[in-house]
Write a structure and sequence with these properties.
Layout lengths: L3 H7 L2 H7 L4 E4 L11 E2 L5 E3 L4 H11 L4 E5 L5 H9 L4 E3 L5 H11 L7 E4 L3 H9 L2 E4 L5 H6 L2 E2 L8 H12 L3 H8 L2
Parallel strand pairs: 1-4, 1-6, 4-5, 6-7, 7-8
Antiparallel strand pairs: 2-3
Helix pairs in contact: 2-8, 3-8
């Protein structure tokens, strides 16, 4: 009997096929790993960010099954560094003005092809990366242009489990999902 997750991904057969090849998942932060809200104090400093534990567990499952994770974000935040560190994400590029250049450099340094790279973004600064990625992923609340460029659109918003859906897609396409479910029952 197919699981609900299998049915959700069957709406995106091209995404499942593309996901089989992915070796690197690149994530934006605001609107992807968070809900995009910015909490700024009177000194102009970002006060806090809210991350989702489902996303974090999905990322841990993904990295433990051979898919590397990287963050490319336009903002700089100690909170992002801390979250990445807690998830063992070693590639964190912050304050990036030209995300496409950063992605191309990263792909070259890892000796990957673009077909082996998935990108998840939510707004225009992510569009150039999404348009060249082997698998373009958008959270549900992403801007219309981003949704139009995506091979897969999560049913959840950024910061609300969208990244976990992307992780589950990759794990399923690469044959790990059912084994991991069974292992969690032991």
């Amino acid at each position: 009997m197919p699981s609900l997750t299998t049915n959700m991904f069957s709406q995106f057969p091209q995404a499942l096929e593309r996901a089989e090849k992915i070796k690197l998942l690149v994530l934006d932060v605001d609107g992807v790993l968070t809900n995009g809200s910015l909490f700024i104090n009177e000194d102009g400093q970002e006060h806090f960010k809210q991350f989702n534990s489902l996303d974090g567990h999905g990322l841990k499952l993904l990295t433990s099954n051979g898919v590397e994770v990287a963050i490319i974000t336009g903002r700089t935040s100690a909170m992002v560094s801390q979250r990445a560190n807690s998830l063992n994400i070693n590639i964190v590029l912050m304050g990036v003005e030209h995300k496409l250049s950063a992605l191309n450099s990263l792909v070259n340094s890892k000796n990957l092809t673009l077909a082996q790279v998935a990108v998840m973004g939510d707004d225009w600064p992510d569009l150039a990366m999404l348009k060249i990625a082997g698998l373009a992923i958008a959270p549900a609340q992403a801007h219309t242009e981003v949704r139009n460029a995506a091979h897969f659109i999560a049913s959840k918003d950024g910061g609300e489990g969208a990244v976990r859906e992307a992780c589950d897609l990759l794990l399923m396409a690469q044959g790990h999902y059912q084994r991991l479910i069974m292992e969690s029952l032991v």
